[in-house]
């Protein structure tokens, strides 16, 4: 199944065009554009997961003003994360990617964890930060609040309500993103 979503930022000017391919493997392809008074930026990314929903490969291009950066993350057969071929031991064993510029990657733990209403699960994701454009481990907690509602918390104190569709694709990300168009609805 292929589903395309367009989200708009709620806290500044920005939009995302994102395609989710949900089947034997999961793929997410997105393009995020933001225009702030101090800078404009563009993020183009692709996430590929295996049949168990575990992230295998991530390619991100980040453009700020006239600076272009690319990041290639890949997991090897021993679940070791590599950035542009360089081992990142602090990420070893992590399953999910969390690209900070988009709500799309919240789909990955939501689908993989399959929480019942009222259940919570703590996990650590490989978090790509912007504008730093680095990747760090980030401890997170997902709690299923209702059939299509989750609470997302990071141990840094950040939290938000996430409203999804039946596939786990984010429709609304409290205070930050709202769905404009979803080809599945």
Automatic annotation (TrEMBL):
<dbReference type="Pfam" id="PF06475">
    <property type="entry name" value="Glycolipid_bind"/>
</dbReference>
<protein>
    <recommendedName>
        <fullName>Glycolipid-binding domain-containing protein</fullName>
    </recommendedName>
</protein>
<dbReference type="InterPro" id="IPR009467">
    <property type="entry name" value="Glycolipid-bd_prot_put"/>
</dbReference>
